[in-house]
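Lecture 7, part B: from sequences to assemblies.

Below are the input chains for today's worked example.
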Amino acid sequence: MIFLKKLRLSTKETITGLIFISPWLIGFLTFTVYPLIQSLWFSFNNVRPTAEGLMITFVGFDNYKNLFLGDVTFSDILINYSLQIIVYVPVIIVFSLFVALLLNQKIKGQSFFRTVFFLPVIITSGAIMKSLLEQGATTFEGLTKIASNPILRENLPPVLFSLLEFLLNSFIMILWFSGVQILIFLAGLQKLDKSMYEAARIDGASNWQLLWKLTLPILAPLITVNIIYTVVTVSTYSINPVIDKIQTDMYRPELGLGYAAAESWIYFGVIVLIIMVMLLLNIKRKSRAY
Amino acid sequence: MNKIKRIIQTFSIYFILILISFVFLYPIFYMISYSFMGESDLVNPLVKWIPRNPTIGNYLEAIKVLDYSKSLWVSFLTSLLPSALQVITASVVGYGFSRFKFYGKNFLFALMLLSFIVPPQVTMIPQFLMYRNLGLLGTIYSYIIPAMFSQGIRNAIFILIFYQFFNMFPKSIEEAAKIDGARAGTIFFKIAVPSAFPAYLISFLFSIVWYWNETSLASLYLGNELKPLTLRLLGFADTFRRLYPFNPNSPTGKNLNEAIIMAGTLLTILPLILIYFIAQRWFVESIDRVGITGE
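Predicted structure of the full complex, as structure tokens:
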């Protein structure tokens, strides 16, 4: 301890700070960075677990090539997942913002509604979702009837139709993903400066203008947070078909672990890409609003 | 005129909110209603919501299929222990990021936040091999050790919660203690920890919920001996068929119907619902209390 006193104050602070964050630093290096590098290396190799240990042979981009050329299901699942996210994220963001704006009005029973909207965050797990989806308890009969309407199926472009189908067939599930986002928006709305609104109102701004010119630009950082949160939540859901596929392929000895590692890296890439595109769109919208 | 307009406005807000509440609760009503239906109610087209002959038989079946008492214990074990460790470490790390200035801090903090978007599947295979080599597979340690080192489920959020919380907390008491010669560790345990009670409680509650609901990591790391409720529910149909092999000639043979599945689903989330009812205020006010949206 005595030698610490002799050190410069800033050095001492650095050491104390590093000691405090060391659990994370050690964990991050051993359980995230090292596995990340290893799985990236695996994805360029044929990795077979044998009795003597791992048999690793370098195959270059073969795993990636096989994934897209040899395995039809993977690209299908991936496209399906991307479409699903493209439907989910805007719907969840708009819906949670809408609910937060409603809850932010002077109404009685606000805490009751908050409790109801947050309940799904507590109880939804992959297992629950799967069991409810199989029973058809995630949507209403009327909505599924719209999705099975032949006129829509024939006249809409297939991509648009599948987007609509996602929306209608798991309508309640989509809303169930919005609990945290509603609360984040609500917390942001409650911190807004009231005097700014009064000033704008005196200048003759309508409610609609207030929403677009004042509220949304201020909430923009929270929209970013919510987009990231939504994409990550939906992507790491246990019953997500991509995850299912990766975890099944891990146990297929003829493919080897490198194959599953390549799948997971493609998946990671797609998630990052989706987040970046969504954030760019959000920034664009924001700059237009100003 | 203005008054009428306001009444209509208020009325429509309530109407929309109640409608949305119904949509949110629909699957839960569905679950409760179906879980009490006997076979005759299920096939009766006149029975929509309220069973004619309510029965608890579905629950008795579901308890058997889920191996309820054992898997309930496993669920508690695999969610309480990792959560406690994850939260304790997160508070230490969050305090470190919040209170001390050091070279590269911002870079490390950004890395920590970025790690939130890494899907567990990317690191899963090497981690799986690591645990296998260390003989941790199929034991609770494969859950506990990453949690101890801030690599549990959604750990970045918890570090962020404590970081924000300590940032909001006035530094003056700590500075006074520092001038009096108290060491950083003492200040942390004597001043920071007691003051951070809301952050601990909120993080702990969320962590329990997320661990409880995790299935893909559980199926990979915990093995067959430690099967939590959610995993049992995923394998519900298979277990049922194993317990009651299909036999068309025997009148005692049972068929898996949606009522039994719904009873099983409800039993799986029942402990979470109880936790929610007790600590509901803490969940719902969490985001306000820890200032995660920034001040």
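Note for the exam: The CA atoms of residues 128 and 140 of chain B lie 14 Å apart. Keep this in mind when comparing with the next example.
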